[in-house]
Design a protein that fits this description.
Blueprint lengths: L1 H10 L19 H10 L23 H19 L13 H5 L5
């Protein structure tokens, strides 16, 4: 779908203009998943770092400290993995490795 959007933008003379693609999917919740979205052309995503499914009907089982610990762990893992990913400039102008680390927004 993103390729089709980009083809249409090019066809109508707008291929060089800024165009951000936002997507939140199950892949948005892991560093590897964010990399997959980036490879598809997604420039922005939002995800979570714990075991709570915000789309489910269950009550959130995580205490605040558990959420903080999960966020820190995810940041540490993301920082380590993002260092291995070559930066690519998305339409937003913020390097994608920065987006994967949750910075730049």
């Amino acid at each position: 779908m993103i390729d089709r959007i980009n083809d249409l933008r090019q066809e109508h003379g707008r291929g060089g203009e800024r165009f951000d693609i936002y997507a939140t999917t199950p892949e948005s919740f892991t560093v590897d998943g964010i990399k997959q979205l980036e490879d598809l052309g997604v420039t922005h995503t939002a995800g979570g770092f714990g075991r709570f499914n915000p789309y489910g009907l269950d009550t959130d089982p995580e205490a605040l400290q558990e959420k903080i610990d999960n966020l820190r762990r995810h940041g540490d893992e993301g920082h380590q993995q993002a260092a291995l990913v070559p930066s690519r400039e998305p339409a937003s102008g913020v390097p994608s490795s920065t987006l994967a680390r949750g910075e730049g927004e």
